[in-house]
Amino acid sequence: MPIEQGIASTSGMAIGGCIRRDDGHLVPDAALTLIDPRGHQVSRAKGDADGTYTIEPPAPGSYVLIVSANGHQPAAVNVTASDGIAHVDVTLQGAGELTGVVRTAAHEPVADATVTVTDLSGEVVGAAVTAADGTYACRGVMAGTYTCVTVAARMRPAATTLSVPASGRLRFDIELAPMAMLWGTVRAEGRAVRDARVTVLDWSGTAVGATHTDDDGRYVVADLPEGEYTVVARGYPLVTGQVTITGSQVDHDIWLSFGADEHADLS
Predict the structure, then answer these.
(1) Which domains are present in the chain?
(2) Is 37 exposed, middle or buried (CB count within 10 Å of its CB: 0-12, 13-18, 19+)?
(3) CA-CA distance, 227 to 33, in Å (whole number)?
(4) pTM attached to this predicted model
(5) Residue 26 DSSP one-character state
């Protein structure tokens, strides 16, 4: 139903429309005040639960419509009243702010990380990229429960649920775990072995990465979180070895041999 059809006015004049956030969502229960050019209040009203509003001016002329709502910055709009209905939509900016610092477990700042905030329906309500010192700020986030997802190069993505209080302001620091790259060369009898299959197993024996060596016998398995792994190489008789990942890059060469034991020591 058009907003004009829902406006009832005793004076024959009315101003009505919809109140929305800057992301298009309707804002319910807004407070509306109409003032004249001298700043005197001449009318007041309250917005409906569906984001629509109606307010009646006392006489034709120019006014300022002030709109405010919890969790939003107030807005002031020039309006002109005359016989009939004036349709004026108003957009409010969110007053909330989610801030914090993205760091590693070693308290080193993570630059260029993307912080995304989604509501319970999965819609994005805020996003930011961290500065050189790891700080971020997602503005316009209102009170409520959200999912915060943080992504950065060579880091394990982090997702958490957080609640923004009624004040609309929350500081939330984020810790990311680094993802390491395991690389090395597979050799046998003094030469590099091409097309050898290298598989990395976690503590439970589950394969978390696999690759084949290139023409120079080199292999790379990326995006591994810190921990202990078993490295299995196939090309000649099977060879396994243990490796502990504690940094961003780990160099682990593998030696194959026709006479190698099935469980060779690669440390």
Answers:
(1) 3-92 (2.60.40.10), 97-176 (2.60.40.1120), 180-256 (2.60.40.10)
(2) exposed
(3) 61
(4) 0.53
(5) B
Task: Please give the Cα distance from 129 to 152 (Å, whole number).
Answer: 10
Alpha carbon 71 to its chain centroid, in Å, reads 20
Tell me how far apart the alpha carbons of residues 218 and 211 are, in angstroms, rounded to a whole number.
10
pLDDT (tens digit, 9 = 90+) per residue, 107-139?
Answer: 999 999 999 999 888 888 889 999 999 999 998
> Residue 262 corresponds to which tokens in the numbers above?
């099935």
Whole-angstrom Cα distance, residue 78 to residue 75? 10
**Rounded Cα gap, residues 195 and 216, in angstroms:** 9
Please give the structure tokens belonging to residue 43.
Answer: 């009318």
Cα separation, 11 vs 129, whole angstroms: 52
